[in-house]
Amino acid sequence: MRISQLSAESGVPIPTIKYYLREGLLPQGEQTSATRAEYGPAHLRRLRLIRALLEVGRVPVAAIRRVIEAVEDERTDVHTMLGTAHYALASPPEPHSAGDEEWTRARDDVDRLIAGLGWRVGPFAPGRDELAQTLVTLERLGMPATDADLLVYARTAMDLARDHEMGKIPFDGPRDVAVETLVICTVMYGKALDVFRRLAHESESARILEA
Question: How far from each other are the two terminal CA atoms of the chain, in whole angstroms?
């Protein structure tokens, strides 16, 4: 297909496609003449992945490039490739000083909790810092989280990951489709979970207060 067809089928404007081509995020098409190139299903898959990272995951272009590199490098195993995408979705924690005892204590608590759960999580996983930042914020708000509080959420998260979410990822399919699925499921089902929690809060408030 020509670039105009690629744009029509993907919903991505031609100038944006050309930008992705210049930035190396989208592989070049097969040159059939000096002014014409042909594109195929692989280009459509890649555009879907870029859109998922950019529009759903709000991942910056520099981080998208790292994800694309992991997708294209067949020497990178699937677990590491998916981890690269997961790490790109992480929100950076607030800056803290090296001697910040509150932060250090929260990070130690997170590491201890993850170890106690027996989870296989990399030592530099940004989720560790994200969770530590959450604990610091809860402490400052006067609502410190106990291990019992956190374990409820941790076990619920593992149940969702093991029994529902990870089963949606086509591990044996095209690498870019696996990453696209991971990003969409992580972000969109995360939003759905948050919405259901708020709806449940409203329902329980009505029940408790007999509203």
Answer: 59
**How many CB atoms lie under 10 A from the CB of residue 1?**
15
Region of residue 116 (phi > 0: left; psi between -120 and 50: alpha; otherwise: beta): alpha
* Residue 196 burial by Cβ neighbours in a 10 Å radius (0-12, 13-18, 19+): exposed
Distance of CA 122 to the CA centre of its chain: 16
Map out the domains of the chain as residue ranges.
Answer: 40-209
- Report in angstroms the alpha-carbon separations of 180 from 34, 56, 82, 160, 210: 33, 10, 10, 19, 44
- Chain segment 58-87, per-residue pLDDT in tens: 888 888 888 899 998 999 999 999 999 999
Look at the chain and count its residues. Answer: 211
* Burial status of residue 111 (CB atoms within 10 A of its CB: 0-12, 13-18, 19 or more): middle
Between helix 101-117 and helix 126-140 the angle, nearest 10°, is: 120
Q: Give me the chain's average pLDDT, please.
A: 90
* Cα(88)–Cα(177) distance, integer angstroms: 16
